[in-house]
Design a protein that fits this description.
The protein is mainly α and about 130 residues long. The protein has seven helices and no strands. It has one domain: Cytochrome c-like domain (Cytochrome Bc1 Complex, Chain D, domain 2). Helix 1 packs across helix 2 and helix 2 packs across helix 6. It starts with a helix and ends with a helix. Bound molecules: heme C (HEC).
Length: about 130
């Protein structure tokens, strides 16, 4: 019994360390290395309903205005999200959202880690069939 408590305590302690590391990851907005933050986002559990509301928002971040509600995109300028939602890792999707590219702005400063995780959960649920 006491053995179990010690084990539990050390698990809680190491979880605490992980939490501190991901907090550091959220502060970078202009850096080009999003790997720490992308891993922190990948470790979160996203909400499909919150992500769907964000994706379809017409105020901000307006993802669907470019990638369309069904995720088909507007090739060749705006990629569809069906293939990435099915094949990319959480880290790759998080990095794409944080970084932006071409017409897509960087969402590193306007979205929280949890919001990016919610968006990824939605992309998987809605488009990765
Ligand atoms: C102004 C139009 C626009 C908006 C708004 C926009 N995107 Fe994009 N998105 C793009 C373009 C253009 C690219 C291609 C970027 C590149 O090639 O570097 C892209 C790329 C991506 C990719 C990578 C696709 C791949 O092929 O790997 C993902 C994932 C993505 N966007 C998700 C989102 C999400 C989620 C939002 C909302 C938070 C969003 N985008 C908002 C235009 C947009």
């Amino acid at each position: 019994m006491s053995h179990r408590l010690v084990l539990l305590a050390s698990l809680v302690l190491s979880a605490g360390c992980g939490g501190a590391a991901s907090t550091t990851g959220t502060t970078g907005t202009t850096g080009t290395d999003y790997s720490t933050r992308a891993s922190a986002i990948a470790a979160l559990s996203g909400s499909v309903s919150s992500g769907g509301a964000l994706y379809k928002s017409t105020a901000s971040p307006t993802c669907a205005s470019c990638h369309l509600a069904d995720g088909s995109g507007q090739p060749p300028t705006t990629p569809g999200l069906i293939e990435p939602a099915a094949n990319d890792t959480d880290e790759e999707l998080a990095t794409a959202i944080l970084k932006g590219g071409d017409a897509m702005k960087s969402y590193a400063s306007s979205l929280s880690d949890q919001q990016v995780a919610d968006l990824i959960a939605y992309l998987r649920s809605a488009f990765a069939q």
